[in-house]
Design brief:
CATH architecture of the largest domain: Alpha-Beta Complex
Order of helices and strands: EHEHEHEHEHEHHEHHHE
CATH class of the largest domain: Alpha Beta
Helix content: 40-55%
Radius of gyration: 25 Å
CATH superfamily of the largest domain: Spore Coat Polysaccharide Biosynthesis Protein SpsA, Chain A
Structural class: alpha/beta
Shape: elongated
Largest sheet: 8 strands, mixed
Strand order of the largest sheet: 7-5-6-4-1-2-3-8
Number of domains: 2
Number of strands: 8
Number of helices: 10
């Protein structure tokens, strides 16, 4: 098996058949074997039913991994890589915004350039709103400043890579996963190619602004401890500021005889210092919480059912 297309699915009942048809059409004369590894991430609609139908028909080699509940896209990627049998593994969404034809171009690059290990696609232009685009750009600016690894702006999980890269990623059995950062952390030679996202075949996006914000926080905390260091800097700055303000108040009283500010100043200072302390405690709590969850050594996912095309 040369190529495995890993496809995480959450409530994609209307898309999975169309996706398979698009893959068959794109690879009909490719000259090599390929498979589709669908991962049902605890879907609430008819996604699993439709996947079982595709598995039964076997118009092309199809595997189905079905989770016991919704574990998230990152877990779906991890499970798909575990069950992928190809020499090349491609991560792609089921909604057909990322076209299978681009995967074929990625495979061609890997064939022609043995020094390249990963071919990653980035959007040359985005069709999303200006507000969301602004926050995404700010996220990449922040994480590249805080982290020791560098993330390509606008790059997504849409990429094709060699099995050696897949093996390295599976060794990182982290419970809180951020694939963009993991790909950057393991290294390997990567070539970035532009692509234009198409319209969704059906349904709506599962990524709300809140989910994107939580995902961004996962990425920053998972690949940088600098927020902890910055909390030290912030505490040092407020301590120095408090000493300077104390000296100023004493000078006002002793030299100029100005009454020391009273109730309002005290309340403002208490609120300021209290908010800074809570902010720093919150940062520490995020790291401690993730350490606690990782220490439980729970699996990244639980597969309720696995359907292989060989049985």
């Amino acid at each position: 098996m040369k190529l495995s297309l890993v496809v995480p699915c959450y409530n994609e009942a209307e898309n999975v058949a169309a996706f398979q048809a698009a893959v068959i059409d794109a690879f009909q004369d490719c000259g090599y074997d390929y498979e589709i590894v669908f991962v049902n991430d605890g879907s609430k609609d008819a996604t699993l039913h439709n996947l079982k139908k595709l598995h039964k028909e076997q118009k092309c080699p199809v595997k189905v991994v079905s989770f016991s509940r919704n574990f998230g896209k990152e877990s779906g990627i991890y499970a798909g890589m575990e069950h992928a049998g190809g020499d090349y593994i491609s991560l792609i969404d089921a909604d057909l915004q990322q076209r299978p034809e681009i995967v074929r171009d990625m495979v061609k690059i890997l064939d022609e350039k043995p020094q390249i290990d990963v071919v990653a696609a980035y959007q040359d232009r985005r069709g999303e709103g200006k507000v969301l685009s602004f926050f995404k750009k700010r996220f990449y600016n922040i994480i590249n400043r805080l982290s020791d690894v560098n993330l390509h702006s606008d790059a997504s999980d849409f990429r094709t890579f060699r099995r050696s890269v897949r093996d390295s990623l599976l060794e990182l059995a982290e419970y809180h996963r951020f694939s963009k950062g993991l790909f950057a952390w393991v290294g390997y030679d990567t070539e970035f190619i532009p692509y234009t996202a198409c319209e969704r075949n059906a349904g709506t996006t599962k990524w709300s602004f809140k989910k994107l914000m939580n995902y961004a926080i996962e990425g920053i905390i998972g690949f940088s401890t600098k927020p902890l260091r910055y909390s030290i800097y912030l505490g040092s700055f407020t301590a120095i500021s408090a000493v300077l303000y104390l000296l100023w108040v004493v000078l006002e009283k002793l030299i100029w005889g100005i009454d020391i500010p009273g109730f309002a100043t005290i309340i403002v200072l208490i609120l300021l210092l209290g908010s800074i302390q809570l902010f720093c405690i919150g940062i520490i709590g995020e790291y401690v919480g993730r350490t606690f969850e990782q220490s439980k050594d729970r699996p990244v996912y639980i597969a309720k059912e696995v359907l292989d095309y060989e049985n």
